[in-house]
Specification:
It is found in: Cell membrane. By secondary structure, the chain is mostly helical. The protein has 13 helices and 4 strands. The strands form 2 sheets. Strands 1-2 form a two-stranded antiparallel sheet. A two-stranded antiparallel ribbon has the order 3-4.
Length: 300
């Protein structure tokens, strides 16, 4: 018995040793900075000075004095409302097209997934900016068809939709999950619907959507969280312009922290973003009750 117990303990020790690098990384790079940022959000703190406790001053300034915050908050929500539905709808449409038995389908699936491999990279953002410049490829194509050229990145009405298009274009990961969910829909449900005389739309609405609703819900949660934290696209492509029309909360946080060195104020912004994500996530979970179907456990 003693040998068995010691052997079990040795295996446990090995397991702890294997996960030790992750634990150290989690503590040093995530948990400790997470707690510190909460403390700093209640301080007057810059890189050049030690933090001084200031209570709710940063939050009061943020909500009542700083006009840029509310503009960034609005822009971030517009960005989220554009990109999340757009990305999920595109992913679902392409997944349904890819859910077919045809020659070369695996190659097509790979091609549609490729944008996600490069998504969010600075190089792709630069390429996107070059494409949508006044003298870029997109205006060149419009000119070739005799259509008027647009100031995609210089117009307050088109700048935000332009960077949203880049985010929607990166739907590959969602598409792969949707495709996997579609392949797991029982065929006998479609056969039963055919016997009842259901059309294509009825089968999509009453069979496909309920069966893949957990994956749709998961994507809504993840894409919403990502959109509320967006930074790279706007920073590289438009720098928040023109006239702050693409000035996302992530950009404001970066600007306050690394341009003005207001670390305490930037920490307050980060916690507002975190609180927003938490509230939205809880509301989505609340709303999903009775609308997301789990075949092995009933409604969520």
């Amino acid at each position: 018995m003693k040998n068995k117990i010691s052997s079990h303990d040795r295996r446990q020790l090995k397991g702890y040793i294997y996960i030790l690098p992750w634990l150290i990384g989690f503590l040093v790079l995530q948990l400790i900075p997470f707690i510190q940022s909460f403390y700093y959000s209640f301080t007057d703190y810059s890189i050049m000075s030690s933090p001084k406790f200031s209570g709710l001053k940063n939050y009061i300034t943020l909500f009542t004095v700083d006009p840029e915050f509310w503009n960034s908050f609005k822009v971030t929500w517009i960005y989220t409302l554009y990109t999340v539905p757009g990305k999920i709808i595109m992913a679902l449409i392409v997944a349904m097209l890819m859910n077919r038995d045809m020659k070369g389908i695996n190659g097509l699936r790979t091609i549609y997934y490729i944008p996600s491999l490069f998504g969010g990279s600075v190089a792709i953002c630069i390429l996107w900016r070059l494409m949508f410049m006044d003298t870029g490829v997109i205006n060149g194509i419009l000119g070739a068809f005799g259509l008027p050229k647009l100031q995609w990145l210089g117009n307050t009405k088109t700048a935000l939709p332009t960077i949203c298009m880049m985010e929607i274009w990166q739907f590959g990961s969602s598409m792969v999950m949707m495709l996997a969910a579609l392949k797991n829909v029982p065929k006998d449900l479609y056969e039963a619907a055919d016997l009842d005389g259901a059309g294509a739309w009825d089968k999509f609405k009453n069979v496909t959507i309920p069966q893949i609703s957990p994956i749709i819900f998961f994507n809504v949660i993840m894409q919403t969280n990502n959109a509320l934290q967006a930074f790279t696209n706007a920073f590289v492509i438009t720098k928040g312009g023109p006239l702050k029309s693409t000035y996302l909360l992530g950009m404001k946080l970066y600007q306050e922290a690394f341009s003005y060195y207001k670390m305490g104020y930037a920490s307050a912004i980060s916690w507002v973003i975190f609180a927003t994500i938490m509230v939205v996530t809880l509301l989505l979970f609340r709303y999903s009750s009775g609308k997301v179907y789990y075949s092995d456990a009933g409604d969520f």
